[in-house]
Amino acid sequence: MRKNSIFEWKVKTGMVRVVLFYLFTLLPLTAGAQVVVTDEEDDEEEEVIAVDEDEIVVTDQEGNEEVIEFPEAMTYDLDSLLNLYMSQTYLSEDNDCNMRDVNPTYSKEEYIERLSRLPTVMEMAYNDVVQKFIDRYSGRLRHSISYMLGASNFYMPIFEEALEMYQLPLELKYLPIIESALNPKAVSRVGATGLWQFMIGTGKQYGLQVNSLVDERRDPVKSSYAAARYLKDLYRIFGDWNLVIAAYNCGPENINKAIHRANASTIRNTADGDAQSLNKDYWHIYPYLPRETRGYVPAFIAANYIMTYYSLHNICPMTTRLPAKTDTVMVKRNMHLEQVAEVVGLNIDLLRSLNPMYRRDIVPGATEPASLRLPLTETTRFLDLEDSVYNYRADELLTKRAEVEVNDDVPTYYHKSKRYARGKKGRYSRRNARAGRQHARAGKHKGRAVSSKRSSRAGKKRATAPKKRKAASKKRRRR
Fold this sequence. Notes:
This protein has helices at 3-13, 78-82, 85-90, 108-116, 128-138, 142-165, 175-180, 200-205, 220-238, 241-250, 252-269, 282-285, 291-294, 296-309, 337-345, 348-354, 379-384, 386-391, 394-397, 418-478, and strands spanning 34-38, 45-52, 55-59, 65-69, 91-92, 319-320, 326-331, 334-336, 362-364, 370-375. The protein has 479 residues and is of the alpha+beta class. The strands form four sheets. Strands 1-2-3-4 form a four-stranded antiparallel sheet. A two-stranded antiparallel sheet has the order 5-6. It has a two-stranded antiparallel ribbon with strand order 7-10. Helix 6 crosses helix 9, helix 9 crosses helix 10 and helix 10 packs across helix 11. The longest helix has 61 residues, at 418-478.
């Protein structure tokens, strides 16, 4: 596809999806088109409609539609991966690669035969859904696969050691490809973090520390061992590796719900009601799974395929220059990575890449002894200069104070807000009203006492009036 046609496609669709891979040529884009896959055995056709870049709808010959959602890591922007320090420093394009943008097509039988030859304990079955994910990796995501093939030189030995320690299938090392695209700083839309995409609760359950300064979900070593323990626990529950990695994606509760729903459906549709042989098969419970989980096992099988047979699809790994060996030192006081970089003479981005678990570049050694990973050649120099590192710009870089004094030399002024004044006025008005009622009550009682006194006086006057008149009449008679 020429640049002009790509530009026209972008204008028509309103989407700008140009993938630059250093000096790579532009990758042909075919989003929005209909892909018809022919089954060579019975010539049945299945139509796949791309509804957006995150999902596809598969329609069979009977008109039944199925929505398949791609794992989030399959939608990551390649440029963000290439901006990582490890990518910029130790990965580069392979200029000797030929036919890098030519993706050959193969028959269904060839894909089945290749998957069957993979040296795995886990089942690597083929079907149309798996084929769509293989096409995605070998087509639109082929440059991302080139990056991940190069980055796997950094991370795969760590994954293999953790899996081997817990006696787990080594093919599980490709799980972070569909989880994080081998980005140790990846954060999903729901907050899952790191190469193995742990949620906070699950990470803490398996010993990963997460707080404002430290997020061990980003530590490639610690998170790999935690993931191995988690996978082993899931296998104890389900006893099937396809169900294990599906549960890793959506949680064991959702898998149990899907098993029970599939079992109930099978009992309704089966005469003898015997569904026990089917209720723990991933492909049997497939319709009852969440949309993203429906694509999770197919994506995992496709990742195993493409990371093994990439050369058959003309995908060239990025050239890798392995970083220098590293070692760890234990820090017992708070320390900023910039202090280490300036005093020891190291690149701050290198330190961040070696210590991705420190979220704000602060090593909280005062809380508990904390590990600091350094290039092996610089560990001795750090130990010799450790006191100087602690003291370098400590007041500027470590600003959290242990003790503060309160300034009480000046009067304290209160700002009387409208709400405060209104509340105060209300209190005064209520107090005045209460006082008025009490005053009125007191006046009323006083008025009653005065009136009773007056009435008694009037009664006395009325009682003495006839006596006075009688005495006056006697006095007149005498005269």
